[in-house]
């Protein structure tokens, strides 16, 4: 029984410390040069960003940046940028901005995507539904 109590106490301590460990990991990630590249993408997601521009933001050559980024995050910078754009689009759609009939076209333009069909294809691939259908589902759940 004392082993069970000790295990329970250890689990309780771990659960208490878990949020702090996550915060520390996030701080370390932001301090890492490649974390600054993600910050850059989040700040400028709505406009075209080149590999050379991203690499320059962290003082690396484009080749070294691409290789290091993929090693660290397991996706290319382009894939990360698309994920950021789609996350923003999803947030705007969930907030009901703008109305469902015009949402996809406006969100695509505001999110730095080529056009509405580009948003539709990427959104469907990532989330399994179209932007308009997603927005209607969210609004119906309110």
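-> sequence recovered:
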């Amino acid at each position: 029984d004392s082993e069970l109590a000790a295990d329970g106490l250890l689990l309780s301590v771990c659960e208490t410390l878990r949020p702090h460990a996550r915060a520390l990991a996030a701080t370390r990630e932001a301090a890492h040069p490649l974390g600054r590249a993600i910050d850059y993408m989040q700040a400028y997601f709505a406009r075209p960003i080149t590999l050379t521009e991203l690499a320059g933001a962290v003082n690396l050559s484009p080749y070294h940046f691409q290789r290091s980024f993929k090693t660290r995050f397991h996706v290319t910078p382009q894939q990360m940028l698309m994920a950021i754009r789609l996350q923003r689009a999803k947030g705007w759609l969930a907030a009901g901005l703008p109305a469902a009939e015009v949402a996809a076209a406006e969100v695509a333009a505001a999110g730095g995507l080529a056009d509405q069909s580009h948003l539709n294809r990427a959104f469907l691939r990532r989330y399994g539904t179209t932007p308009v259908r997603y927005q209607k589902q969210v609004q119906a759940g309110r």
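The chain has a mean pLDDT of 82.
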